[in-house]
Amino acid sequence: MTIATPSRATAYYALALVAGTNLVSLLDRNILAILAPAIKADLKIGDAEMGLLYGTVFALFYALFSLPLGRLADGWIRTKLLAITIGFWSLATGGAALATGFFTLMLSRLCVGIGEAASQPAGTSLTYDYFPREKRGMVMAVMAAAIAIGLGGSLIIGGMAAQWWDARYAAGTAPLGLRGWQFAFAVAATPGFLIAFLMSRLPEPQRGVMDGIPTAHDPHPFRASLNVLGAVTPGFHWLSLARTRATTRDWTLNIGLLALIILAVLLAIHWSESFSPRPPLLLGGVAISPHVVQWSVIGFGAFVIANLLQNLKGRDPVAFALITRNPSLLLCIGAGALQSVINYGVMGFTPSFLMKGYGLSPADTGLQFGLLSAGLGVVGPLIAGPLSDRIGAHRLSRRVWVALFAMSLSPLLAFWVYHAPDAGDFYLRFTLYSLILTMWMPPLYAVLFEQVLPRMRGLTVSLYIVVSTIFGLGIGPYAVGMISDARGGDLGGAILSINWVAPPLVLILLALLWRVERDHASLLPRARAAGEQV
Which segments constitute the Major facilitator superfamily (MFS) profile domain (predicted)? Predict the structure, then answer.
């Protein structure tokens, strides 16, 4: 059922379900962080390999499939899409309970990445058609708060479930021989099935009505989605280029970019092997260096981005023009990607830092740090979202000021936090740090989504996800793990090292302040000039 003008109650119910989707997404994604010490001990791997599982493997498939699923979200029924994908990634999370080695756990993680790829593009697009512009800061605040609860909840559920199971069953007596960390994955998978059922019964709002830009029905959304997947997947994309009769210039550009990416990957592998030598991993019976896996995935993702933009230019020149010729949109994506390097690097290893540095148990770490990070992750966005609505409803630059405050101050506070002498002092310092750190997302997202037309929001979210996932989630945790291994397990120093991406991040936000008003004011004229009928 499609509704043109949803009621207030229906809108807030939809927001609650989309927030619940974000919550279970981060629950299933982040539970690996609290289980890392037990998984490392059982599978006999290091911090760098945990970074591969937490970030890189997940990031590749999450980023790749967010593109076709984002396109599907722009043309198909978003409530059905979300229901199907939530159920899929919940099954994949439960599948980790049966993992017996690095390779099988990796397969579970990549399937979780495929399913979760629809959550942000479809969820954000859906809520934007339930709420008017002046409420969207609040909407993004609720979404960010749900993400924080999912992050915190993953630590609480994972730590307590794993510790309870291991205490309940001595070695060799557990049903199916499951370890505590395997049982924790099974527990984490459960709530997703309820959210999927409720989402399947949610009415679909009419696209674009809230913005006064009604959007025509897409007659072939699945065909378009498969075309996007084929056009961006390395190897298959050459078939797409041949089918569309690409020019010699297009082929030269594509192959030239591939050569540059391969060169960058080889240099990164060589540097990583010198900086932090690691034993090979056994993947499907083949021994391979984790550094080769890491940087090949990043290179693959970078080539996906190049293919996406090249395909978009031929398939939707209006969207290509509005995205690539809008400095503010590109600056938002760049800022979000750099902040993701920090966020994922910090959150991926802080539970391990607490257990190793202060001698806390998994259950204590999960309960204490999980509750604290979840609570602060709710408060920060709920301050920043309405604040940016109040001061920036008619001037986007004021929203940027809120993001700049959070993203420039929090890295400085990190050096104070991770030098705390004991756990109590750490939690006290982390309270201020996390409150400020979590304020960046609502204002930056609100600015980002105002830079394109309603029909392009799913695609824009997908592009943002690809860039921030490949270069944020894909690099942040692995970099922290690699630095930790190179320094003999110094997780605190490794976590702090990742904050050195903050100076270029601040420069990007200053440039965004300078550009954002003029770029937003020129959106409709630029769209009309590119051929859009608006």
Answer: 14-519
